[in-house]
Give the backbone structure.
Amino acid sequence: MKKENVPQDMSSLGKITKEVCYATDSSGKYVTELSSGWDVKINALDVAWKDIEERKAKAKQQVLNNEVSPLLFFMEYRLMDIGILSDYTGFWKWQIKRHLKPGVFKKLSDKKLQKYAEAFNVKVGDLKTMNVHEA
Amino acid sequence: MKLDFEHYQSAHCESGVTSSLLRESSLNKITEPLAFGIGAGLFFTYVPLIKINNGPAIAFRTFPGYIFKRTCNALGIPVVRKKFSSKEKAEVFLNEQLEAGNPVGCQVGVYYLSYFPREYRFHFNAHNLIVYGKEADNYLISDPVMDKPTTLTSYELERVRFAKGALAPKGQIYYPKNTVEITDEQIKKAIISGIKKNVSLMLNIPGSFAGVKGIKYTGEKIKKWRGKLGLQKAGLYLAQLVRMQEEIGTGGGGFRYIYAAFLQEAYAYLQKEELLEISKMFTQAGDLWRTAAVQAAGIYKGRIGSQEDFNLMGDYLIEISVLEKDAFLALKKIKWQ
């Protein structure tokens, strides 16, 4: 890539810091050039977040339909799969799978709920309402 | 306390941290591209059975931690590297090093990295930054991908040092044990060994989904994504490919441009004309990766999306695979004496 072709499309990162790119100058020598972003990757990130939003909305509906416990909503909200959640809470994966059942979730002790709240960085009360107050 | 440390912005976190931590030892000679190349940083893999963020697990660079380790080894610099099970001990050790005057590299997760924009915060645990001091409750942070130094509170730093999930950092800290002078002769040897290692990684790694043949494998797979996954999910997969290739820290073109820059710097040390020619091949590979990214964007933006569009996308990768194979074979053939 030539230095003058380093894209300068404003991304959300570009507002905070420009990124270093490697590109060639007129003599073909490599130099660094700052970029404020590139549409191609801005769109790629948008696609990823649109998918996350859709997954969140779907999970929320499943919770409201009583098909799954609110844990699923918070997993989507925090981009966590069962493995990551297991690492953060110390619960086994099979335990989390059980806790994903609405009936089981309703009977969880405060202590267990507290672990989930910490992992999701929300308040225990938020776990039941799905209203998120950033801790 | 604030150590005498100059912040340098770089493209990629680990080669940037490596280059910054070695500045004193090397009298600024170990630039980012040299660290990346000596550390045999260039790679490709697509692991079909693993999913990351509901998409394909694709990497354009070598395993985390490898660049720092290899670069220091190749230059004969002893390294201290520690992981911790206790958060308290991890902080005590960090403070001791700062007291002793050592800026240190830390592996961190980006999900709770407060100075990153929210859109960029995924559960990615192989980010690297340097801690070079502490003022009140704030640690002074030199994050190589940021243009300026920044800070994290002790709680924020602890949270990212103990992020969980794949490649959990476990408080990992690392730094060169002492300042030793690095000679040009050592740099020359390290460059040659880095090139040989990268040749071997890209050409000889076993299995079908890594190295240059992994690129071809991925190209073939992409052609089937539309039928297998449906247009929307296939678009999501392509977006993930592009993010791994171009997002923060690659220097553009899936690290191929950094590698091309490395080969030019290698020429300055070794005067092998071939290096300049091969550098151009990596520039071409980087350009082609970016052309492929533009094609991918057409698909995930919904502008195009026929099977032919996916075929063209896959063919780009197959073409890149051939080009990179030729480039590494040419590197392999260089007679170093």
Summary: Chain B touches chain A through 58 residues (CB under 8 Å). Chain B has a mean pLDDT of 95.
